[in-house]
Design brief:
By secondary structure, the chain is of the alpha+beta class. It has 2 domains: 2-80 and 193-200, Glutaredoxin (3-Layer(aba) Sandwich); 87-190, Up-down Bundle (Glutathione S-transferase Yfyf (Class Pi), Chain A, domain 2), CATH 1.20.1050.10. Helix content is 54%, strand content 9%. The protein has a 4-stranded mixed β-sheet with strand order 2-1-3-4, covered by helices on one side. The longest helix has 27 residues, at 87-113. The chain is globular. 38% of the residues are buried. It binds glutathione. Glutathione is lined by residues 10-11, 33, 38, 50-53, 64-65, 101, 105.
Length: 205
């Protein structure tokens, strides 16, 4: 059986949602990031990078949300969470997920979760840079109603991670980011996402 190592509300929730939406047979194990459990020898043996998510499969461990989401989509094709037969459409999914991992996540992560926490001008600058990336998502990355268009895909639960964090930090202005707010509401309303939130012991925001 697949096993997902996650931390509540952290970016691993993208993989958790992907597994649940796919109807996968999986179990979860919580890694307490605040307690430093990601740096224990036991967890470093699973993911030497010391971050969540990690997905244990019968063939070995997969890390990185973008890779896990692709793997789950390919191993559960009946769920229709990626357009596996159309190279262009599949590349569109990869492009969004690659951007989320390499651009939006580091930017909002720096603004909100730097240790020690940013303050003053440094914090303002980091927030400004992050919000410019949310502008890009708002204006260019939501084909509507879902990220890639008519069909919900493995990109939607991943984008939701970062809109959720932004809303929690009161950064997701409802005028500037009207589409992202609407998208976040619709993702959180999905039954599979509600099951994931309950399993992680967290609430819709
Ligand atoms: N691009 C990676 C990011 C993984 C990552 O940074 N995870 C964070 C939580 S959102 C983490 O585990 N941080 C623990 C730490 O840095 O100590 C992915 O998508 O899997």
């Amino acid at each position: 059986m697949l096993k997902l190592y996650y931390s509540p509300g952290a970016c691993a929730i993208a993989s958790h949602i992907g597994l649940e939406e796919a109807g996968a047979d999986y179990e979860i194990e919580k890694i307490d990031l605040r307690a430093g459990q990601q740096r224990t020898p036991e967890y470093l043996a699973i993911n030497p990078a010391g971050v969540t998510p990690a997905l244990q499969t019968s063939e070995g461990v997969i890390t990185q949300n973008a890779a896990i989401l692709t793997y789950v989509a390919q191993t559960h094709p009946q769920a229709g969470l990626a357009n596996l037969n159309d190279p262009f459409q599949f590349a569109r999914l990869q492009a969004v997920n690659g951007w989320l991992a390499s651009s939006l996540h580091p930017a909002i992560g720096k603004a909100l979760f730097s240790r020690p926490a940013l303050e003053g001008e440094a914090k303002d600058d980091a927030v400004k840079v992050a919000l410019e990336k949310y502008d890009l998502a708002e204006n260019h990355m939501l084909a509507g109603p879902w990220v890639l268009g008519e069909d919900y895909s493995m990109a939607d639960g991943y984008l939701m991670v970062f809109t959720r964090w932004a809303r929690q930090a009161a950064l997701l202005d409802t005028t500037r980011f009207a589409k992202l707010n609407d998208h976040l509401d619709r993702v959180q309303a999905r039954p599979a996402v509600q099951r994931v939130l309950a399993a992680e012991g967290i609430q819709a925001v």
